[in-house]
């Protein structure tokens, strides 16, 4: 499980995250919502180990982030807001490139299957010819090459059509429920968040999301 205790992040005098404490269990999808600038990406970056917190403790499978950062990284799949793939290369070339960087080895057939699981069937197509939704699917497939137990997704469905969003949603649900992944996921689409997530964390000063979610039957944790 992922355990966060009293997490704080300040940028100089600006307090972005203040005393966040929560746990994510295997098999759970936890939604992270809040107004623009609330600190969602900051939190995901800290959990992904690409940014340091100001204070607090984080552990994954009972290993401390402070003490075991290298081992912890092996269990994390992170899809940042900005798509990071090679535009001139094909889907296949991208998957093979990132597989070579991965600590876990996969055959080409396994890599192609990862894409097909998300209905991404353009193996030989250059990325520049893919739609935005397909690029997001490829980015997600890349983050799964090393079979991470914790998936951190920053708006994985932003700007893509409903069909692709539904496909990504179904895929994530299957990853959590069948493969016991922990998924922490941000989106500004409240229908998607309430449909997909088991629990929801709201962060930020604006009470809008907290009040909106109080009308649903979801468990909500607010900071
Ligand atoms: N490296 C940095 N240096 C200084 N301030 C930063 C830095 N990174 C983020 N911030 C500030 O921290 C706050 C939180 O930003 P963050 O991107 O985490 O918000 P967010 O909730 O993800 O917003 P959005 O919904 O717009 O993506 C913002 O005010 C932002 O300007």
TrEMBL record:
Transport keyword on record: yes
Gene3D superfamilies to which the protein is assigned, alphabetical: P-loop containing nucleotide triphosphate hydrolases
Classification via SUPFAM superfamilies: P-loop containing nucleoside triphosphate hydrolases
Keywords: ATP-binding, Nucleotide-binding, Transport
Recorded superkingdom: Bacteria
ABC transporter domain ranges (all copies): 2-223
Pfam family, one: ABC_tran
GO molecular function, one term: ATP binding
PANTHER family: ABC TRANSPORTER ATP-BINDING PROTEIN, ABC TRANSPORTER ATP-BINDING PROTEIN NATA
The family this protein is said to belong to: Belongs to the ABC transporter superfamily.
Protein name per its UniProtKB record: ABC transporter ATP-binding protein
